[in-house]
Specification:
The structure is a single chain. With 144 residues, the chain is of the alpha+beta class. The chain folds into two domains: 14-84, Nucleotidyltransferase, domain 5 (2-Layer Sandwich); 86-142. Helices cover 46% and strands 17% of the residues. Helix 1 (40-52) runs parallel beside helix 2, helix 4 (99-110) runs antiparallel to helix 5 (115-129) and helix 5 packs antiparallel against helix 6. It is globular and about 50 Å long.
């Protein structure tokens, strides 16, 4: 009996899920993609696939700040409004705040029920923390 030896290789990759909300208001999984690297070329290919499968238009795309991503979206779906995800903006801005203060930023903005409430919370944050963390306040205010 011969032993068969399999060589295994661990490959780190990420999975990306594209969700859509249809005209009836229901969420639909449009695609699940695996990739070792995230980049505009990857998204251009994924979005081309969606177009080839019948997606005619994307009203709003909520994305992270990946360089070239908005251009990739608008290449395939030129009428799409691209906006940056506030969750990503807050997480990215928190790296400039001390860990003991981060909870304040998260609580104030994450718990806002409406855009108006979020804007008033950002004004409160700026009044309280603006001098200590001007970069964080500027970053968070840009998304709302």
């Amino acid at each position: 009996m011969n032993a068969i030896h399999y060589k295994t290789k661990v490959v780190q990759s990420a999975s990306y899920t594209i969700l859509g909300i249809n005209q009836m208001g229901y969420k639909e999984v449009l695609g699940i993609y695996m990739s070792e690297a995230q980049g505009a070329d990857f998204w251009l290919q994924a979005l081309s696939g969606l177009s080839n499968r019948g997606v005619k238009d994307i009203l709003i795309a909520c994305i992270d700040a990946l360089k070239g991503f908005p251009q990739a979206i608008n290449t395939i779906f030129p009428n799409t409004v691209v906006q940056f995800c506030i969750v990503h903006q807050i997480r990215n801005s928190l790296k400039y705040a001390a860990s003991k203060d981060q909870k304040t930023f998260l609580k104030n903005v994450y718990q806002a029920a409406t855009k108006a409430v979020a804007q008033s919370k950002l004004i409160e944050l700026e009044e309280t923390w603006g001098k200590k963390y001007p970069i964080v306040i500027k970053s968070e205010s840009a998304g709302i």
